[in-house]
Amino acid sequence: MRGPKSGIGGLFLVFLTLLIPFGLVHLYTRNLVSAALLRRDIHMAGLKKEQLLKKNLALKEALGKLTGKDLVLPSDGLPFSENNRIVRLRLSGDSEAADSGASRANLP
User: Fold this and answer.
1) Among 107, 97, 26, 21, which residue's Cα sits nearest to residue 66?
2) First and final C-alpha spacing in the chain
3) What values do phi and psi take at 96, rounded to 5?
4) Where are the alpha helices (DSSP H) in 1-108?
5) Tens digit of each residue's pLDDT (9 = 90 or more) over 57-89
6) How far is residue 102's CA from residue 108's CA, in Å, rounded to a whole number?
7) Which of 64, 80, 95, 105 could connect to 71 by a Cys-Cys bridge, CB 3.0–4.6 Å?
8) Is residue 5 very low, low, confident or very high in pLDDT (cuts 50, 70, 90)?
9) Is the pTM of this model over 0.90?
C-alpha cells in the first residue's frame, strides 16, 4: 500500500511547503523594490523642481534687467509661487517698447 506521503498528495504537500515560503519572500522583495522605485521617483521630481525654481529665478532676473525693475524676493532669497501658472512674455528688442510697457504697468 501507499503511505500518506506518496503519490500526488505527497507531491502537493512538498510543492506547498516550498511554494509558500518562496511566495512570501517574492512578495516581500517585490514590495521593497516598488517602494525603492517610488522613493527614487520622488527624489527625481524634487531635483527637477529645484531646477525649475532656479530657471524661474533666472528668468525673473532677466526680465527685471530688461524692464529695469528690481526683483523683489521673499526674505529667504527664493521665489515663491502661489499658483502653478505658465506665463509667456514677448519681449521686443527695442528698449523703448520695454520702457513704455513698464510705465503703463505702473499706472493705476
Assistant:
1) 97
2) 103
3) -65, -40
4) 7-67, 95-106
5) 888 888 877 777 665 554 444 455 556 666 666
6) 12
7) 64
8) low
9) no
